[in-house]
Amino acid sequence: MSLMDFFKPTPTVRVDKLREEMNGPHRDEILVLDVRQPEENQHSRIPGSVLIPLGEIPQRMGELDKSKKIFVYCRSGNRSAAAGGMLLSSGFKEVYNVDGGMFAWDGLVATGGLGAGMVFLSPGAPFDEVVAASWAMEEGSAAFYRFILDELDPGEARAVLEELAGSEKGHMDSIREIYNNLAGQDIAGATSKYRGEGCCLEGGVKLSDAKEWAKSATMDDILEFSMGVEANSYDLYTKLAREAKDDKTTKFFQALAAEEWKHLLKMSTLLKMDV
Please, is 177 exposed, middle or buried when counting C-beta atoms within 10 Å of its C-beta (0-12, 13-18, 19+)? Predict the structure, then answer.
């Protein structure tokens, strides 16, 4: 089984499709959701859109009408893809990520779209296999953050990225223990096929692709992509907490989810809002 068998894509639409829906006869049946920061929304926005920053989605998704077709956008498509995945995971039926985000709406070329095809976990995968996959993805994410720290200049984001790289390593140790208790064997054998440059970060993006993309990306693009990665990780651990068979495992994955969300919020304060 491939790691990607655990995932399915978040549907994506182009801005011309969104404009068509907004100008069509069923405008009252759609909702356009902006998941950027308030400062970004004040600078520019899609007319009629509702603002709920990515970091507030878990607490505020109850404000959204599940009967409506929801189009989610951000700066370039990374954060909105992750937000869309969380909504779909929570029972929303029609959610679409706006490809290219505000950049595309304004007619610009989006340079930060590596995570635009971010994916969310499909139901039905065996619990212990998803735990093993999450360990491999933590390893991939740690390697990506370390690559940014060692090969690029992260500037003021260095401290947060150092924290991220360290915490992913800590998560790996904890997940290994959980898996060993579940499966009665060490996790290394179950994850060998997911590891190396072809392995995936949380969210399903290949490590090798992420490294190559980062070489020419801006630090804002990297931060936005990383926010999407952490949001996908939050979504994954929230699901594992719901599906766990005992209270100890539930609390463990709830704690991991909370930590990933804390990281996402820290990165949101570093993302420049003048674009």
Answer: exposed
pLDDT along the chain (275 residues), means of 10: 65 94 95 94 93 95 96 93 91 94 79 58 76 88 95 92 92 91 84 74 83 92 89 88 91 93 88 54
The radius of gyration of the chain from alpha carbons, rounded to an integer in Å, stands at 18
114 and 175 share one domain: no
E strand map for 78-162 = 95-98, 119-121
Q: Count how many residues are written for the chain.
A: 275
Taking a C-beta distance cutoff of 8 angstroms, is the pair 112, 75 a contact? Answer: yes
How many domains, the chain?
Answer: 2
Any domain includes 252: yes
Given CA atoms 228, 230, 234, 235 in this order, what sign does their dihedral have?
positive
Alpha carbons 154 and 133: distance in angstroms, whole number = 28
Residues 236 and 113 in one domain: no
- Closest by alpha carbon to 97, among 32, 174, 23? 32
The domain in which residue 13 lies consists of 3-120
Rounded Cα distance, 159 and 59, in Å: 27
Residues 130 and 258 in one domain: yes
Pairing mode of beta strands 12-13, 30-34: unpaired
